[in-house]
Specification:
about 55% helix, single chain, mainly alpha, about 0% strand
Length: about 170
């Protein structure tokens, strides 16, 4: 079984600096994305900005627990991205995600190994190990979506009909 430093390393791989499984990571995918690309709708898919908000929402929520706080996040709010109308807002969201990811990994790294098998907040949520592994799996799932959406945007895939093009607005 993996130790907290090994889990933290795997989390950093998907979020910040790895290429082992997916040959990319969130940082690699998001840094070159402009705010107009981040909010550009592609078919019925979530936007890159919305997926970034979603992943950061969960990282920040679980990070709060790792730092001794309560579990305050709720699934129903995990896609409630406020409108992004300026480049600075996108840059802030992206920076928040990457900063929270590093802080999250650092908290996991210093966790005592026995805590991995302890209940996460309540027994119904499983163990810390289950939740940390779930965070990694969840991140890879949405990393794949972001990667594909970027390819669609770069390839000129059509946006949702009747949706104003963010380049024109």
């Amino acid at each position: 079984m993996e130790t907290p430093p090994q889990i933290a390393h795997r989390f950093r791989e998907v979020m910040l600096d790895g290429t082992w499984i997916a040959n990319t990571n969130f940082q690699h995918q998001l840094v070159p994305v402009t705010w107009r690309q981040a909010i550009r709708p592609v078919g019925p898919l979530n936007t890159i900005a919305r997926l970034t908000f979603h992943i950061n929402y969960y990282i920040a929520g679980v990070l709060n627990v790792l730092q001794g706080g309560d579990l305050e996040i709720r699934d129903r709010y995990s896609f409630d991205l406020p409108p992004i109308t300026r480049a600075e807002q996108w840059q802030q969201l992206r920076s928040d995600l990457l900063r929270n990811a590093e802080t999250f990994a650092a908290e996991v790294e210093k966790m005592p190994p026995e805590k991995l098998e302890a209940p996460f907040v309540q027994e119904k949520y499983g163990t810390y190990r289950r939740n940390l592994e779930g965070m990694i799996e969840h991140a890879y799932y949405h990393l794949g979506q972001i990667s594909l959406i970027r390819k669609m945007i770069d390839g000129g895939f059509s946006v949702v009909p009747d949706t104003p093009d963010p380049e024109i607005v």
